[in-house]
Design brief:
By secondary structure, the protein is α/β, with parallel strands linked by helices. It folds into 2 domains: 8-189, 3-Layer(aba) Sandwich (Rossmann fold), CATH 3.40.50.10260; 194-467, 3-Layer(aba) Sandwich (UDP-N-acetylmuramoyl-L-alanine:D-glutamate ligase), CATH 3.40.1190. The protein contains 17 helices and 16 strands. The chain has helices at residues 8-18, 25-40, 56-69, 108-118, 165-169, 181-184, 226-238, 268-272, 289-300, 310-317, 319-327, 338-345, 349-354, 356-367, 402-415, 420-443, 454-467, and strands spanning 47-52, 74-78, 92-96, 124-127, 149-153, 171-175, 189-191, 215-220, 243-248, 264-266, 278-281, 305-307, 332-334, 370-373, 378-381, 387-390.
Length: 475
């Protein structure tokens, strides 16, 4: 099942709602971490170094040290590098320097401790979050521990899941400390899983025809970029859209796609004038006057719409397009990467990445859309304010055309009647899962091509639908 995610302020509300408990939360956290620490030690490793900071995280660390010592392990507690014995072979390092709520860069003696910990070859267990990683954003504040394992107390935090967090957290587990946080403070964020949107995973009836699978148009493919629109069209076709039209702007556009001859290639104006259930604008669109006109026409329609790539850049430059987007009542999905988000928000890319959740929230609010800010731990914010972090995907997906494939998949889901929030979350999760399948098959992370995700995405989608309960046929 999908796990809830809590910001630091929300964790504090959970703790407040729990009130005084016995044993204390610090004792419970220390006990949970000590249990995991013992599991990480081999039979011959008896030396454990516990790094303890000044706050509650340091208090948790001291409980861990006491409980491990009670297991007859050789435990050393250190607050500075000078306190670390140089003649020990450590079986485990426990990072209890700083937990959630860290607001300023780490420097001085604590920075030296972190660099020392990162130089070790034994397992490193971080308590709650690796020291130096901002719990709400995943941003590294000066220096950060690179843990092999992290035990997150009470619930997951966004900093564990996005930006630099996953590169520092290692294997993440959650110790709820017996609080059952969702019963105390209802969550507004979750990790994306198919189960979260099970109601949108509807197997097809046997009495089904292509008209019930919807029609989608892909608008883009300016000179030299026809491949982007064709990739999107192929992805839409493979994910079940009944009819897929590709409107190509290029004057020398092909009449047929030899890889997917089922695609119907049209002039963009003609494609947009058809009876459609969804439209995707942006793959290879370019930024000329014709492109701007197409974006305006799509935004003026009542057709569910996916806006990607150059469509986003045009909206960023044109206040009329921004206002048209914000006025839409039909489903609108935006899929910016950090650079596109920076242009839409008139911020630097660095500022966007420093607080990915806030950036995605502002985009969703300003443009009245469901938004995914792509990247490591893609952040998804729905129109109603609910938000999600997607944890599928891998570095092999940092290649040309990946966004085009995603936009085509999203168009297909919208065309088949999937609500915007569910379409965006499921589509992003599916896209990443297809990339993971290619990597696990040995084709990545280096060298995965965008088009290679289309076939595995279809297989995974059909598996999800099958799990939703294809009924046995009568004999």
């Amino acid at each position: 099942m999908s796990q809830p995610i809590y910001l630091t302020s929300e964790i504090r509300r959970v703790e407040q709602a729990a009130g005084e408990v016995a044993p204390s939360l610090m004792e419970r956290a220390g006990a949970a971490a000590a249990e995991l620490a013992a599991q990480l030690l081999s039979d011959r490793d008896k030396d454990v170094l516990v790094l303890a900071g000044p706050g509650n995280n340091g208090g948790d660390a001291r409980v861990v040290a006491r409980l491990l010592a009670e297991r007859f392990l050789r435990v050393t507690l250190a607050t500075r590098v000078e306190e670390i014995p140089s003649d020990r072979r450590w079986g485990l390092v426990v990072d209890g320097l700083f937990g959630i709520g860290l607001a300023r860069p780490i420097e001085g003696d604590y920075a030296k401790l972190i660099e020392w910990a990162n130089a070790q070859t034994c397992p490193v267990l971080a308590l709650d979050i690796p020291s130096g990683v901002a719990s709400d954003t995943g941003q590294v504040l000066g220096h950060a521990v690179r843990a092999t394992h992290t035990v997150s107390f009470i619930a997951l935090k966004p900093g564990l899941l996005t930006l630099d967090g996953p590169d520092h957290c290692g294997v993440v587990s959650v110790a709820d400390l017996g609080l059952r946080a969702p019963e105390l403070v209802g969550p507004s964020a979750w990790v994306v899983t198919p189960e979260l949107f099970a109601g949108s995973l509807k197997p097809r009836r046997r009495n089904f025809h292509k008209g019930q699978a919807g029609s989608v148009a892909i608008l883009g493919g300016a000179a030299g970029m026809a491949g982007a629109a064709l990739l999107a069209g192929r992805a839409a076709l493979s994910l079940g859209a009944g009819r897929v039209y590709v409107g190509l702007l290029a004057p020398d556009a092909p009449a047929v796609d030899p890889v997917a001859p089922e695609l119907m290639l049209r002039h963009p104006d003609e494609a947009l004038g058809l009876e459609l259930d969804a439209v995707v604008v942006g793959p290879g669109l370019g930024q000329g006057e014709r492109a701007e006109t197409l974006v305006a026409a799509a935004l003026a329609s009542e057709i569910p719409c996916v806006l990607d790539a150059d469509a986003l850049n045009l909206i960023a430059e044109n206040s009329d397009l921004r206002h048209a987007c914000a006025r839409r009542t039909a489903e609108t999905l935006l899929t910016p990467h950090p650079g596109e988000a920076s242009r839409l928000l008139a911020l630097s890319t660095t500022d966007v990445q420093a607080d990915r959740l806030n950036a995605a929230r502002n985009l969703a609010h300003n443009l009245n859309a469901h938004v995914v800010l792509k990247g490591n731990g893609s952040v998804i914010v729905a129109r109603d304010g609910h938000w999600f972090v997607n944890c599928t995907g891998n570095p092999g997906m940092a290649s040309a055309g990946m966004g085009d494939v995603l936009s085509g998949m999203l168009g297909a889901l919208l065309a088949q009647g999937c609500p915007g929030e569910a379409a965006l979350a499921l589509g992003v999760h599916l896209h990443g899962a297809a990339g993971d399948e290619r990597m696990h098959a040995g084709d990545g992370p280096v060298g995965i091509a965008a088009g290679e995700l289309i076939a595995p995405a279809r297989r995974i989608w059909n598996a999800w639908l099958s799990e939703r309960g294809a009924r046995p046929r009568a004999r």
